[in-house]
Amino acid sequence: MSILDRFIHPPAPHVQPVGTEAAARLAAIHASAFPRPWSTLDFERLLSERGVMADGLFVGRSGKPSGFVLSRIVLDEAEIITVAMAAEARGKGHARPLLAHHLEALSRRGVARVHLEVEEGNAPALALYRRLGFGETGRRAGYYHKADGTKATALTMALAL
After folding, report:
1. Pair 64, 41: CB distance under 8 Å
2. Cβ(157)–Cβ(137) under 8 Å?
């Protein structure tokens, strides 16, 4: 690849593990996606815990993630705690490869079953999780507090790896 090609053709998006060094960026992405965002300190604490694993999606030449997924592993099960994409990366098909990579990494670490919860009105997330093979396992009425003061039902979902 020539020098000119490197400037004209940005590198393909890629996924790689992230740690506490990315806490501020993950907090900023989370704040852009959720009405009750987690702080940088929240992410630093989570990312320092044993059994917590996070992957970031990197688009273009930026050294900062454009999205991330964070899970907690206990024995042979994991819970996806949160997934978020920066506003500029949403709707571009990046979440599926990010999650697929993360699920593969969980499987390599011996995880046999993955759990998550999602707001029942989050159609894009539900479609993604269903495409990846997650099935609904339960409902938690009034679980999420929305920005407008209303409450929304959470759907619990699981996937056998």
Report:
1. no
2. yes
Instruction: Work out the number of other CB atoms within 10 angstroms of the CB of residue 13.
Output: 17
pTM of the model: 0.88
The CA distance from 97 to 100, in Å, is: 5
Over its C-alpha atoms, the chain yields an Rg (Å, rounded) of: 16
Instruction: Report the distance separating Cα 67 and Cα 19, nearest Å.
Output: 13
Work out the burial of residue 52: count CB atoms within 10 Å of its CB; fewer than 13 is exposed, 13-18 middle, 19 or more buried: middle
Model confidence over 1-25: pLDDT tens digits?
Answer: 555 555 566 667 889 999 999 999 9
At position 141, the amino acid (one-letter code) is A
List of domains in the chain:
3-114 (3.40.630.30)
